[in-house]
């Protein structure tokens, strides 16, 4: 099995950030930290005009939090630190001065939906069903919730948060505003992502930077908000309910 990684490739002024984990592209703390830093670095790199966020392999985009790490959380401080990993990635995307295009090739769960919602322009295949499964294990999509609500609205976010057992199809996610377009294959998606990203590189960099500020207006408090949400998740993951549920994933 391949080792987890986060990498950045620059092609035709587009920075392609790719993350991978053999457990369906789940995100343990070290991968989250590297992903956040890579986004920050790409945002500061003058050789990059537009960023594409993608994951490795052809199937799952992101399975969300690492259950292996969740099982091993034994105190609130450790729990808050773990969930802050997602907060740090979302805030890195929010503050990045460049447009971030999401390339969602397959199913995405929990924190992965939060990553997709934090991109500025998200494109997917018809296989990219989404699910917020957190309530199933006794926590909730607290950290990623603001990003999902911002993109899809409170009604859609609450629907998938409450219906934590169901995958919602990519077409539903497109209709709710998460995805801009849904393609029949990964090959078609990759062509569209490349074409879109390289076309954006012909735009005025300063205009895109100012537009991004407009898109994210009203989120200046997210450093504090997401830290508070991480603390809630860090407390709930220690509950007897969650500990019992997580035993099933060992």
Molecular structure report:
Helix content is 48%, strand content 16%. The chain has 250 residues and is of the alpha/beta class. The protein has one domain: Alpha-Beta Complex (2-enoyl-CoA Hydratase, Chain A, domain 1), CATH 3.90.226. Strands 1-2-4-6-8-10 form a six-stranded mixed beta sheet, with helices on both faces. Strands 3-5 form a two-stranded parallel sheet. Strands 7-9 form a two-stranded parallel sheet. α3 runs antiparallel to α10 and α5 packs across α6. The chain is globular and about 55 Å long. The mean pLDDT is 96.
Secondary structure: elements and pairs:
Blueprint: E1 5-11, E2 14-20, E3 26-27, H1 29-43, E4 50-55, E5 64-65, H2 67-71, H3 76-95, E6 100-104, E7 108-109, H4 111-118, E8 121-125, E9 130-131, H5 145-152, H6 154-162, H7 170-175, E10 181-183, H8 186-200, H9 205-215, H10 222-236, H11 240-247
Parallel strand pairs: 2-4, 3-5, 4-6, 6-8, 7-9, 8-10
Antiparallel strand pairs: 1-2
Helix pairs in contact: 1-3, 3-4, 3-10, 4-5, 5-6
